[in-house]
Amino acid sequence: MSAVPSIAADRKAELRVFSKSVGIRFKSPGLLNLSLTHRSVSNEVSTPNNERLEFLGDAILGAVTASILYQNLGEKNEGELAKIKSVVVSEDTLAGIALELSLDKVLVLGKGEELTGGRTKKAILADALEALIGALYLDGGFGAAFGFVAPRVESEITRVLEQGRSSDYKSLLQELCQRRYKNCPRYTLIKRTGPEHDRRFWIEVSVNGTSYGPCTGRSKKSAEQEAAALAFAAINGR
């Protein structure tokens, strides 16, 4: 593990209060602080940031979520589990959890990012949460990371199942495209097969120049949902 920069006494005190409120323990306050340090700080001062921890935390989050889904939803197939997982670990969901933890209040941002509302940006909040998970893993092992992630993931899985949000991938993909690419996905009917009573539709979706599918369904709507789910999972990279 790379060297962790030391931190001032007042910052240590602030992080102790944060840790207590969230219910976590860190042997290394510097590691916790690093997980909350956005790359915009490195652009202004020569110091490490949380990007490497974010990379690590993303993998751990994915593993914990997949494990819980596998253990708790034995009736779901691989495709259904993947769809639920992609919602649970999405940027919107992670940013919401970060705000619930008041992560926005303890972030360390560069001056420019601070002035442009960085504390409320979903991408920054989601990345910081993943970095925090990575830091927990390095500081206390997989058990510490699992203990932090599991109850939050379980509540999000319950919410997804109760609200049926995992089936509304067209809306999720639309939101993601508008946020990330400033455009909308385009759905194309590739072909239809079968007689009237057993029709199948094949739909492809194009997102920012990349096509996903075709996917099939008994209606155009269901085929579009399948294509949207495929694209959403691929773009999220999870």
Write a structural description.
By secondary structure, this protein is mostly helical. The chain folds into two domains: 159 residues, Orthogonal Bundle (Ribonuclease iii, N-terminal Endonuclease Domain, Chain A); 68 residues, Double Stranded RNA Binding Domain (2-Layer Sandwich). The chain contains eleven helices and three strands. The chain has a three-stranded antiparallel sheet with strand order 1-2-3, covered by helices on one side. Strand 1 and strand 2 form a beta hairpin. The longest helix has 22 residues. It is elongated, with a radius of gyration of 20 Å.
CATH superfamily annotation of the largest domain: Ribonuclease III domain
Order of helices and strands: HHHHHHHHHHEEEH
| Backbone shape | elongated
Tell me the span between the first and last alpha carbons.
25 Å
Total strand segments: 3
Strand order of the largest sheet: 1-2-3
Largest sheet: 3 strands, antiparallel
Radius of gyration: 20 Å
CATH architecture type of the largest domain: Orthogonal Bundle
Instruction: Report the sheet-strand fraction.
Output: 5-15%
Low-confidence stretches: none
User: In percent, how helical is the residue content?
Assistant: 55-70%
